[in-house]
Automatic annotation (TrEMBL):
NCBIfam families: PRK10933.1 (NF008183). The keyword Hydrolase applies. InterPro entries: GH, GH13_cat_dom, Glyco_hydro_b, O16G_dom_2. GO terms for biological process: oligosaccharide catabolic process. It comes from Jeotgalibacillus soli. Residues 3-394 form the Glycosyl hydrolase family 13 catalytic domain. Keywords: Glycosidase, Hydrolase. Its EC number is 3.2.1.10. This is oligo-1,6-glucosidase.
Length: 533
């Protein structure tokens, strides 16, 4: 899977925003990587407070991205190259400029009032103590009708009321509109938030916002969505499901559940601001055991919401290329569908702009405002938000070393990462040892080695702080993956059963590694990755 955040991908009309025409022009590059499915971030009409995740018209294309004709050509061009396209489905909330919300908020007895979640104040205050992802409260007061409405994200993103059957059927109609155009599935945005805690009670610990999701009723909604829409099409669905355990995750993706096919869970992304090898391995093993034989996991470490993996979990200084390859090798050999976020395949890094004004992300800007309003020092708050700012992943793709990295002939909507002169597609494609060609090999291996897809997984190094050594076994084939996540050499002694005379080296991220006679005791160099069969 390859994620295209189109507004940062390639700009063809010089307005500083990437666009769908730009995706069409670069499809051969994506195809060359070996991609099967493209996940396109939202390109529907939107006032763009949350970069397209605040939709004001589900069945028309945002002017910045292009128009429906461009979108139809993109779908056709993707299919002509034997690839598939899945779209982002954002139905927990709309924009506050969606006509539905404009009607709903116009008066208490408007027929669409109950399409959103409106509550009276309690003791002159918010209806309860729930926090939102992007603001201190999920409640926003509307003077005109003297009630609060709920928003799990920004004020500009009112939550739809999924208890209302009219809403659900309107959404199913919209889904059919896109599926009947021939898309190949959906990535379902925060889909586990659709059902709200019954009665909207105050919670013990409002800052731990997992009470916003996985509430009773969610599976009934998804089973209805499956019955009404999903099961009638030959498609794939991946749910974005924050704050979920493997046991709960299985309820969304179990093959006998008739809900979704796979999911992104966020244990790694949210619980591990920086690398914790042992915790990561524990999460991987728990998810493998939790879904084994009954459901499919997804493997990712970065996307448009989470910073670039080579910066957050690798070493983007002395070992940028090695650790970019190592992380790619891990994500493509662990159990689950691997996702490549645009730019990951050339080892693009996170960014550190000089001031909050260089940043765009509403989540970061809201957090900055909330914290300095508490009297905290602005520079200290700014510094504290840099590592995890979503804009780390949203800087323009660096195509070459020309002005604005060849992304736009205009002024980019967000600054290009200053390291574009060194890190760009052009130099990557010219280097046979680049991250790109390593990813290309990994993806090609998955098409010819079922062990990578169906193999049983066994971690041989659960307690090791820096080495990650595991096997995948399928129908007599056993792969041994050896990863050294540290900046120093590490030695691994293999348990019995691995001292066969010869092991075949499938792929290594260091040059001139040979197939050793025995690998009973192996010294791995900093950020070295090896795959043996
Ligand atoms: O993300 C929801 C979500 O879980 C992220 O907001 C994440 O938890 C947060 O960024 C901190 O890590 C989805 C979309 O991917 C995101 O871009 C939208 O802002 C959000 O939903 C609202 O639609
Ligand atoms: Ca453009």
């Amino acid at each position: 899977m390859y994620q295209v955040y189109w507004r940062s991908f390639y700009d063809t009309n010089g307005d500083g925003y990437g666009d769908l025409e730009g995706v069409i022009e670069k499809l051969d590059y994506i195809k060359e990587l070996g991609v099967d499915v493209i996940w396109l971030n939202p390109c529907y009409e939107s006032p763009d407070f949350d970069n397209g995740y605040d939709i004001s018209n589900y069945t028309s294309i945002m002017e910045k991205a292009g128009n429906m004709e461009t979108w139809e050509r993109l779908l056709q061009a993707v299919h002509e190259r034997g690839m598939k396209l899945i779209m982002d489905l954002v139905v927990n909330h709309t924009s506050n400029q969606h006509p539905w919300f404009i009607e709903s908020s116009s008066s208490k007895n408007n027929p669409k009032r109950d399409w959103y979640i409106w509550k009276d104040s309690v003791d002159g205050k918010e209806p309860n103590n729930w926090r939102s992802y992007f603001t201190p409260s999920v409640w926003e007061y509307d003077e005109k009708t003297e009630q609060y409405y709920m928003h799990s994200f920004a004020v500009e993103q009112p939550d739809l009321n999924w208890e209302n059957e009219e809403v659900r059927h309107e959404i199913y109609k919209m889904m059919r509109f896109w599926l009947n155009k021939g898309i190949d599935g959906f990535r379902l945005d925060v889909i586990n938030l659709l059902a709200k805690l019954k009665g909207f009670p105050n919670v013990e610990n409002p800052t731990n916002i997992n009470y916003l999701g996985n509430n009773p009723g969610i599976h009934e909604y998804l089973q209805e969505m499956n019955r009404e829409v999903l099961q009638h099409y030959d498609i794939m669905t991946v749910g974005e499901i924050p704050f979920v355990t493997p046991e709960d995750g299985l309820l969304y993706v179990g093959e006998d559940r008739n809900e979704l096919h796979t999911l992104f869970h966020f244990e790694v992304a949210d619980d591990m601001p920086t690398w914790d090898m042992v915790r990561y391995k524990e999460i991987q093993t728990r998810w493998y055991e939790g879904l084994k034989g009954r459901g499919t996991n997804s493997q990712f470490m970065n996307n448009h919401d989470h910073t670039r993996q080579v910066t957050r979990y690798g070493n983007d200084q002395e070992y940028r290329v090695e650790s970019a390859k190592l992380l790619g090798a891990m994500l493509h050999t662990l159990p689950g569908i691997p996702y490549v976020f645009q730019g990951e395949e050339i080892g693009m890094t996170g960014v550190r702009f000089a001031s909050i004004d260089d940043y765009n992300d509403i989540a970061m800007k809201n957090k900055y405002k909330e914290e300095i309003e508490k009297g905290r020092d602005p520079q200290e708050v700014f510094e504290s938000l840099l590592l995890l700012s979503r804009d780390n992943s949203r800087t323009p793709i660096q195509w070459d070393d020309s002005e604005q990295a060849g992304f736009t002939a205009g002024t980019p909507w967000i600054k290009v990462n200053p390291n574009y002169k060194k890190i760009n597609v052009k130099e990557t494609l010219a280097d046979p040892n680049s991250v790109f060609y390593f990813y290309q090999k990994l993806i090609a291996l998955r098409k010819t080695n079922p062990v990578m897809i169906y193999g049983d997984y066994n971690d041989l190094s659960p307690d090791d702080e820096s080495l990650y050594v595991y096997t995948r076994s399928f129908e007599g084939t056993r792969w041994l993956i050896m990863l050294n996540h540290s900046d120093s050499k590490s030695e691994f002694v293999l348990p019995e059963g691995f001292n066969e005379e010869k092991k075949q080296l499938i792929l290594a991220n260091y040059k001139d590694v040979t197939s050793e006679k025995s690998i009973q005791k192996t010294i791995l160099l900093p950020h070295e990755a090896r795959i043996y069969q």
